[in-house]
Amino acid sequence: MELTLEQLTEFRNETRAWLEKNCPMSMRGQTKDIAELYWGGRNATFISEDQKVWFERMHAKGWIVPYWDQKYGGGGLSPKENKILSEEMTKLRCKQPLFSFGITMLGPALLKFATEEQKDFYLKDIVDAKIRWCQGYSEPNAGSDLAGLQMKAEDKGDHYILNGSKIWTSYGDNADWIFCLIRTNTEVKKQEGISFILIDMASEGVEARPIQLISGKSQFTETFFDNVKVPKKNLVGELNKGWTIAKYLLTHERQMIGGIGEADQKFKTREIVRDAIGLNDGVLNDPILRTELAIHEMNIDAYDMTIERAIDEAKAGNDSGAASSLFKYFGTELNVEAMEIIMAATGSEQLIVKGDTTDNGFIAKKFLRSKGNTIEGGTSEIQLNIISKNILGLPSK
Amino acid sequence: MALVLNEEQTMLKESVKDFLNMKSPLSALRELRDTNNLEGFDRSVWKDMAELGLTGLTISEKFGGLDFGYIGLGQALEETGRTLAASPLVSTVLLSTTAINLCGTTTQIEALLPELAMGNIIMAFAHEEKAQHNPNHVATSAILEGDNYRINGSKTFVLDGHVADKFVLVARTSGAENDKAGIQLFLVDAHSDGLSVKRTMMLDNRNSAKIDFSNVLIPKENKMNLESFEDLEKIYAIGAIGLAAEMLGSAQESFERTIAYLKERQQFGVAIGSFQALQHRAAKMFINIELCKSTVIKGLKAIDDNEDNLTELASVAKAKLGQTLKLVTNEGIQMHGGVGMTDEFDIGFFIKRARVVQQTLGDYNYHLNRYAKLKGY
Q: Mean of the per-residue pLDDT values for chain B?
């Protein structure tokens, strides 16, 4: 049933009043690092009483995932109501009460591809923050060629036996369950022999080992599966049809990575450059860096305008289709470029990683980490391949 | 208002596209060149464009226009960028009509807008004095003597100056030649005594003029109402955004022609478009054109909404289009290979127009530099 304008206004007023009353002050403001948010899961702890209160109040309201159906623990809000809620939360700068790959990645896949029984079983635990999920896609020998993955499932009647390993599992060592792409047929074209299977990481034979990056500690693990037994009911969608689900989810993931800065801290590139280099008569003292910064900012403006346009196009029902690869490619290239400019501007001071500094090479580490942006979630080169084949229609050899 | 076209604007764009494909396709420009046409455009096509309403897109209905705003004009300009249609649309509608709308006196507006809307007169905007765009460099003087202004000086790169009936002239009533203060606009009849016009055919086969003013006397009523340098900057900003719209059309058209060629041209027994070395370059062009589309619609919308950051948006659009159109037309030649260098293939027309439109109202460097200044560095 479509709500009237008056009803929507009333909803907005009620929502604002409720948020103002119920969102603790410490749960408002910019999220500097997503690690400071509540992630839920079997071993979860709240970092503060306010965080707990905020989660519980939003949970009681059904607003952990406001747009999911109430029967799955959601708030049952219409798209318009959900938009109002998210606008009001943005205005008050309320933090997300729960940060969860279950909501952003697995949820959409379950809603589209799972059986009713599976939805009942998994979605409620996501909303209740009982289960923390992670994603198992890439393998040591299946990066850009994801469909070439080899972790395999053997059919043992009522269950599968899994063997193999996954890599670049985000927060694999803190997650309770993992959703994986697994080889279930080796006789057919590689995309047609992959299935989407859910695995309890408490099962015997699962081990997640953290990966050290050039930038230091990371959220990634390599995840090993040694004769892991998984009931057949954990298969989502049809057997050997997992690639369809994977493609659907990768589109989601690319949009998340392209939109970097939404949750993570964004450096104020211009201010850093100006402070470090200085101005003479209103002009930056380094003409080369000035040009680089101007080109960078021009492209950021154009990129932001393109996001705005894509949203408007989507509202108008014009699907540009190009969106996710374009944003993933350009957004990450811009992020890498920003870090290069900041490194050039801040010079040797930011290269000090121990000793005479309080930052301990914070910028340098962020710079190193940024190099992964153009690799993770599909490399820049893969995005260009997708554009040239799917959008421009250029032929494969 | 959203960054998408409404139904009316979409229909306008479609009808201009159909019209130009029929009346002024790229082959028409080639013919104008090959027949050494002295005006560089087809007056009958210009008359048809006026009948279609293009001359009155930014003129209010009160004066016989369509009141479609700059988003509307932008769509028409974009389409002329696709077929490289030569016409006084930029000189007369984008620049001169804008100047009169913004800075005309009531008398000037009432006299000129109906004529402009009907397409009865061609006007040119005479501002540049050097090879590089420089808004505050104005040496041309206008000195009040009794009931007249006496004009002395020279202008260059006056688009369609060779056919204009009237000029909007940028001249100085006081101050030194680089001062921002003391600049004013004047309406000057093309047949005034002491005025000499020299046609200069440009690289894109279209025409500009060098104009000398030697003791030209114009009635003082011809002074317009330029209140500040910011008003002049606003005219240039609108001009730059309009040109960016035209450039967007050229970028898309030359890109699409290049992609079609990549699919068709066979070497080593396969279509050259199957080579990744070309595919990735093509994909990057595609991305940049998508970014360009956003800067153009954002700029056009800002003109219609009378937003105050127009200068910055103009520089973003003109710089981004300058960068991208250069890339796309260069790659257009390279990816066409040898035939791209031949006059017989049309792709070369795009690089020629690209270079001229690049220099009109400030190139990539000019706008990037100004953008940096506006951002405070």
A: 97
